[in-house]
Design goal:
This protein is α/β, with parallel strands linked by helices. It has three domains: 123 residues, Rossmann fold; 238 residues, tm_1862 like domain (pyruvate-formate lyase- activating enzyme, Alpha-Beta Horseshoe); 62 residues, OB fold (Dihydrolipoamide Acetyltransferase, E2P) (Beta Barrel). Helix content is 35%, strand content 22%. It is built from 13 helices and 19 strands. A hairpin with a 5-residue loop joins β16 and β17. α7 packs parallel to α8 and α11 runs parallel beside α12. The longest helix has 24 residues. The N and C termini lie far apart (54 Å).
Length: 449
């Protein structure tokens, strides 16, 4: 009999929430969490395939688990879940003895069926997508955190030429507004303060029951009594129409952080990426967002070294970063993914050139972030306390509505999950430093930057 489980999570917030769903199904079957894979009867690898060498990483981890199993007899069952399971699961199941079953991200609710097959001595691969995915929100093993994730739309229809998501998570399927609202209300009633809405192209949301759009969804959720902040990721620039921007700007309790990937500043590269907008169109959108929400902090994704990217193309990307001045930036070297058109494109940029461009991008962004963070010194901000920072137990951290990390000295009675007012007293490129507002008034010293 299987009594304990361990879920190992790789990848984005969507994978984190999927892991909570997997854990909830296991706990509904009477299993309890273990602290380590070697202490668990069943170990699940919830994987991500967005970056290169994902399959190699899975094979390496399966080899490690095989050795642990041979030495300790645990884990007795190993399951491969997530995007690599959807992409390569059948082949891995056939050639990897330690692997007992494969479960794609569209089949999370069928984990119980996989366990039944394993108990009957079978190896099973459950992948693919159905138009109406099963989604038992009440089974999610969330824990008691003040920050919670809620899925509002699955999959993606955009088929950007570099992206594997439509193949591993399927096409867009929105959940009903009423169902999402009930889930958020239940989370807030249980103590959640910040709700982050998830979707690969979240502003393409359309309620299947009423036709309500993303702006209407935000207005409904922002008005839920007791919610501190509503955040959302990830949006697509081409879906920010004017009435949606207005709806976002007037949503109560919406955070001031928006993630709006632009990927490249070159129109030629954007066209080959199939992004559906131009560089000037993106910059114009930024102007509209900041006009409607003057306090907004923008973050973005950038790919360097896309096939055919010239030095001039890359300089155009740097120019957008200089002009827009993002609060956060996530940069990546182009990674060819199976089944995507860009994997077959000619003009591959040498790895050394792409790495050098990424370093230049990060250097520019670090300068921008440092200047933006310095401009926040002496500002009084409200933060949701996360807990002890990496600096040690005496330093805690939280995040404000703009998603910036704030580190501050602990005080008597401080608790993770509480909302506190902090005065910013210093800044680095990647974090703010501060003290509790009440303590600053009492003459506490300013932390060193």
């Amino acid at each position: 009999m299987l009594r304990t489980y361990f879920v190992e999570t790789w990848g984005c917030q969507m994978n984190v929430l999927d892991s909570q769903r997997l854990a909830g199904v296991l706990e509904a079957h009477g299993l309890r969490p273990a602290d380590r894979p070697e202490d668990a009867d069943i170990t699940l690898l919830n994987t991500c395939s967005v970056r290169e060498k994902a399959v190699h990483k899975v094979l390496t981890r399966l080899g490690e688990l095989k050795q642990v199993k041979q030495a300790l007899g645990r884990p007795r069952v190993v399951g491969l879940c997530g995007c690599v399971a959807e992409q390569e699961g059948r082949g891995l199941l056939a050639r990897t003895a330690v692997l007992d079953f494969v479960l794609g991200p569209g089949r999370v609710a069928q984990l119980g069926r996989a366990l039944e097959a394993v108990a009957a001595g079978e190896k099973v691969s459950l992948t693919g997508f159905s138009p109406s995915q099963e989604y038992d929100a009440h089974l999610i093993a969330r824990g008691g955190g003040a920050r919670q994730f809620v899925t509002v739309i699955h999959g993606c229809n955009q088929h950007c030429t570099f992206c594997i998501v439509p193949y591993t998570r399927g096409h867009e399927a929105s959940r009903s507004l009423a169902e999402i609202a009930r889930e958020v209300e239940a989370l807030v009633a249980a103590g959640a303060k910040e709700i982050t809405l998830l979707g690969q192209t979240i502003n393409a949301y359309r309620c299947p029951a009423t036709g309500a759009g993303f702006g209407e969804l935000l207005g409904t959720l922002g008005a839920v009594p007791g919610v501190w902040r509503i955040q959302f990721v990830t949006s697509h620039p081409k879906f920010f129409i004017d009435n949606m921007i207005e709806a976002i700007a007037t949503t109560p309790n919406l955070g001031t952080y928006l993630h709006v990937p632009f990927q490249s500043g070159s129109d030629a590269v954007l066209k080959r990426m199939h992004r559906g907008y131009t560089r000037d169109g993106y910059v114009e959108l930024v102007g509209k967002l900041r006009g409607a929400m003057p306090e907004v902090t923008l973050s973005t994704d950038v790919i360097v070294g896309f096939p055919g990217e010239t030095e001039e193309d890359f300089e155009a990307t740097l120019d957008v970063v200089s002009q827009v001045r993002f609060g956060q930036l996530y940069g990546f070297i182009f990674s060819p993914r199976p089944r995507t058109p860009a994997a077959r494109y000619p003009g591959r940029v040498p790895r050394t050139v792409a790495r050098g461009r990424l370093e230049r991008l990060f250097a520019l962004q670090a300068t921008v972030q440092f200047e933006l963070n310095q401009s926040l010194i002496n500002r009084d901000v409200e933060v949701l306390v996360d807990g002890p920072a990496k600096r040690g137990a005496e330093s805690w951290q939280g995040r404000g509505p703009d998603n910036r990390v704030v580190n501050f000295p602990a005080w008597n009675g401080i608790r993770a999950g509480e909302v506190a007012r902090v005065v910013v007293t210093g800044a680095t490129a990647h974090a703010l430093l501060g003290v509790r507002a009440a303590d600053r008034k009492n003459g506490w010293p300013t932390p060193a930057a």
